[in-house]
Amino acid sequence: MPTLPGPPLPAYLRTSYLSHAQKVCRLYKAALYEVRAKHHERLDYRYHAVLLRQRFDENREVEDPIKAKALLESAYSELQAKKSYFPFRWPNDPGGVAFGRWQYYPDALLDLWHPLEKAQYPDYFARREQRKKEYIERWHQKYGQDARDTGEWTGPMG
Amino acid sequence: MGNIFFFFSLFFFYLGFSNISVNFKVFEFNSIFSFVFFFDWISFVFLGVLMVILGSVVYFSCYYMGEELIRGRGFIFVVFSFVVAMGFLIISGDWISLIIGWDWLGITSFFLVCYYNSDSSWSGGLKTYFTNRLGDGIFLFLLSNLFIYFIFSNFYLGTFYLFLIILLSQTKSAQLPFSSWLPAAMAAPTPVSALVHSSTLVTAGVYILIRSGSILGGFNWYLGGVGLLTLFVGSFSACGSFDLKKIVAFSTLSHLGFMVMSLSSVCVDYSFFHLIVHACFKALLFISVGMLILTNNHSQDFRQVGFSFNNLFFIWVSLVSLTSLCGFPFFSGFFSKDFTLEMFFWSFNPLFYFLFFFSIFFSVFYSVRLINAIVSIQWSNLVKEYSIFNIFYMIFLLLSSVVIGVVFSGWVNNLQLISGNFLFKFLVYFFLLGGVLFFYQHFNGLISSSIFFLDSLGGGIPNNLTNNFWLFYNNVDQGVLPFFSERLSAENFMSFSKVIQVNLFLYFWGFFIIFYFF
């Protein structure tokens, strides 16, 4: 399941290059979420968030890239060790309770509207009819005039 | 639309009070295979309560599911199908009609849990259905041997078959080896949880044990042990959860264990009484917590609750439900729990005593924790406003969670006051008070909710099932967790043990001194 940014994925699962600044920002966000998970009261959270920011600000001016990378890696392993078992996630974030509550409906559903409902959006439906005609023509040009739809599943959206 | 169900409930309660008993044979084949409905005061009272809860849930689901993009997905159809199945089970008098209700219940509950498209819904649905299916397998085996016997007869069925009946009820009612599906089923929409996982599906197992109560002799220790462990695990795990719905799910689990325990040692009517009362206040708790979740944009974490003036009503309602849950004097939970509690004062086994009274303690602890988290709202999240004038549907459940105990206690058969040592009566309140006080001690990551490694017994289904191989491969299963939520370091142990030591010393020694010297 995709989660908020944590330690870097193994090399065979990485899909993008991240700069050092991006990694640091992702670490900061993940660390702040862990602080939020641990400290439930607002003042308490704010105090520890300021302390966390102070820790990041101390190492802000490090010029040596090797040292910076070493600091980053040790910070990531510290984050991994201190992760809460009940991570703080907003509901629609990956890892939250309401993540993945997708609702699919096929485009053909719009054809089932009542004419009076369709009359409320005349321009849209007129354009839609035109586009349907163009789609059918393009399809016949691609597959020939005698070809017919085999009924294969093309996805949840129809 | 839900009003009609409130009228049906009045009708059923009227029939229930008239104390009739009708055995209605619907179908018979070759004088062996028969299909019987049995109408008793138990059936009618349970149906009445079911109708009240259904009416409230129908209104509640209009708000909760009203935000869905597609309205015509058949949610309410599946809910009604579930209720008909439950009605079948309640009025069934024979194994054939019972298995129809039982299997139908399992299938519809699977569809209800799987309503959303998320990974957790899918894995939760599978866990629910597979555990139920295990019970169905046992049921089919029983049916092949026992179809000629009525479920309520006094005919002794033999130890093996009795054990299978008890095992059957364990799978359905989420007793200990089979309880991992109940927290996982919280991936269902909240109206479903209010109807299904608070009062109907999970009590089906206890209900058949109640119906066959006269033949359960000899299994008292087994039932008591299983019930006790479920009670303890449920209430302990609720103390460590941060998800509102999971806390309520664990609380349901502990109350189911309590019902099974009261079956094992006390009259069957106590268990039924608690079943009814628990259904009322638990459904109310789910609905009020569900409205809080709804106003917080579906956030179920009690660390994320935002403030709205209209939320205050739902907070108050959940407070009423929680006080009834704890067994606070003269709310309805008091009448159903206290009689059973007094029976367990005379238990000889110290471990039993210890676990049982700690479970009461923990039940108060998690209630206070929940209400503290909800009341002390400090985060200014975006909160959706709901009109306070649309909450009248909760009135019946609200009244019943306060009043039904008084009404029914004078009427349930064989309910008698246990007169004992005056101080024994206060033992319970020591524990209640202790639960409240214990909450305000400061711990640092004391309790972790791993439900005692039960997830590993849940068929090995991880909590984040997905069809994407790489996501599945690279995951961390959130099920099996160690006991402490912080690292196991010496100083954590010391702080934990010190606080426990001080508390226990002051609290229990004070009690024992009073007990021994007065």
UniProtKB/TrEMBL annotation, chain A:
CDD domains in alphabetical order: Complex1_LYR_NDUFB9_LYRM3 (cd20263)
Localization (cell): Mitochondrion inner membrane
Subunit structure: Mammalian complex I is composed of 45 different subunits.
Record keyword Secreted present: no
Record-annotated Complex 1 LYR protein domain positions: 22-80
UniProt-recorded name of the protein: NADH dehydrogenase [ubiquinone] 1 beta subcomplex subunit 9
The UniProt record lists the keyword Mitochondrion: yes
Its membrane topology: Peripheral membrane protein
Keywords assigned by UniProt, alphabetized: Acetylation, Electron transport, Membrane, Mitochondrion, Mitochondrion inner membrane, Phosphoprotein, Respiratory chain, Transport
UniProtKB/TrEMBL annotation, chain B:
Membrane topology note: Multi-pass membrane protein
Entry's Gene Ontology molecular function annotations: NADH dehydrogenase (ubiquinone) activity; NADH dehydrogenase activity
NADH:quinone oxidoreductase/Mrp antiporter transmembrane domain boundaries: 92-362
Transmembrane residue ranges: 6-24, 36-60, 72-91, 98-118, 138-169, 181-209, 221-240, 272-295, 307-331, 351-371, 391-412, 418-440, 493-517
Taxonomy of the source species: Eukaryota, Metazoa, Spiralia, Lophotrochozoa, Platyhelminthes
Root EC class: translocase
EC number: 7.1.1.2
GO cellular component annotations of the record: membrane
InterPro entries membership: ND/Mrp_TM, NU5C-like
Keywords, in A-Z order: Membrane, Mitochondrion, Transmembrane, Transmembrane helix
Superkingdom: Eukaryota
One BP term from GO: ATP synthesis coupled electron transport
Coiled-coil stretches: none
PANTHER family: NADH-UBIQUINONE OXIDOREDUCTASE CHAIN 5
Predominant place of localization: membrane
Name the UniProt record assigns to this protein: NADH:ubiquinone reductase (H(+)-translocating)
Reactions catalysed, as given in the entry: a ubiquinone + NADH + 5 H(+)(in) = a ubiquinol + NAD(+) + 4 H(+)(out)
Localization annotation: Membrane
